[in-house]
Design brief:
4-stranded mixed β-sheet; 6-stranded mixed β-sheet; Alpha-Beta Plaits; single chain; binds zinc ion; 36% helix; 15 helices
Length: 437
Amino acid sequence: MSLATAALEHLKALLRIPSVNPPGGEGPCVDYVARVLSEHGIEHTVVESHGGRPNVVGRVRGSGAKKPLLLNAHLDVVPVDRDKWTHDPFGAVEADGCIWGRGAIDMKNMAAMSLATIVSLKNQRLDRDLIFAAVADEEAGSNHGALYLVQNRPDLVSAEYVLGEGGGHTLHVGPRQICPIQVAEKGICWFELTAHGEPGHGSMPHGDNAVVTLARAIEKLGEVRLPPHVLPVVEGFLQELAGGASRAIPALLHPRLANHLLGVLERVDPARARPVSAMIRNTVSPTMLSAGSKVNVIPSSASAHVDGRVIPGQTIAQFLDEIRAVVGPDLEITVHEQHEGVVFSSDTPLYAAIAGMVARHAPEATVVPYMVPGFTDAFAYARIGATCYGFAPVRLPRELDFAKMFHGHDERIPVDGFVWGTEVLRDLVAEFCSPVR
Ligand SMILES: [Zn+2]
């Protein structure tokens, strides 16, 4: 079976398994991957997290002259709004040149390509081990997946380099094509904000209502633009987006001008303004509210869950100082989930190999390192010293917007762009792990 045929078969099989997180249900996906690895005699281990969520790690051994390369793909997907989909989100329907399904881009495509790649290289002479980790739970914070493996089975997943999601796609900017490589990602600080007040009877309003106090704080968080912290990689990426010629970029990096410029951009092109704003500062999105249990009782407390995202290099404490400056000292902040952001050097042999491979397969595209405002499993592997890049190659036509497809309705991947990506990934891995470089 050809590489492309195998990868397409894996993609369709995985898309037909509704591994929606929560609750996850990655089991059948892990079974599929493990079965394929078994059929090809590839060494692998299934690892269950404390919560019973399975992961599978396969390995093709090299000479050991160099440290391993690990391909990572999470097998869970985010929920779907079935009514909004043109085709069954778990049908792997092929239509209009695309394969449709939840996970087609995020990121069963990478799982399928990686599986086809490791199988195709099983008999090749390699100077480093090639590892494929198909993991659970990325969409809920990686605790049962990559983070679990890093903390409990570092023997299986220790690697010099990791390739995962977050880059390798086509970004159409005017007539130009950019191939962004993720070398950095923001951290998270998911916290609960609680206002306390005087309880009382709803028939007699008073000035210390927790619901009102919380609402005022939420409004401030909803409107604030926290101070900019611009990393060199982000500055470089914005310069590249602007074609290197825009005078707006230096202004965007200037604290006071940035707010003005972003205000203008938000009015004329909100879709562009949003990611730019998120790349240059810490952000907060209030997402869940709870207060009260009866309509005629003023509750003594009210709380909101807030999704905070933190620029790499900023500590969680620094981020919380910025939040307190906005909401004031009286509200209680309880952090539920946190990890700091990460940045990796793009001055490595693997980055150079990626750039060379893209230049060979898509000479029209400019390779640029960038930071994603979300997070991926990279933060977990960084903890055991790996250099991680987001490179899940896929060529996309202008009408398919990568960012919209992530967690959006009608997630789909063009068949030709997926086949292209599979060949790029296999060629890259074969070359990078080959002793005759
Ligand atoms: Zn993902």
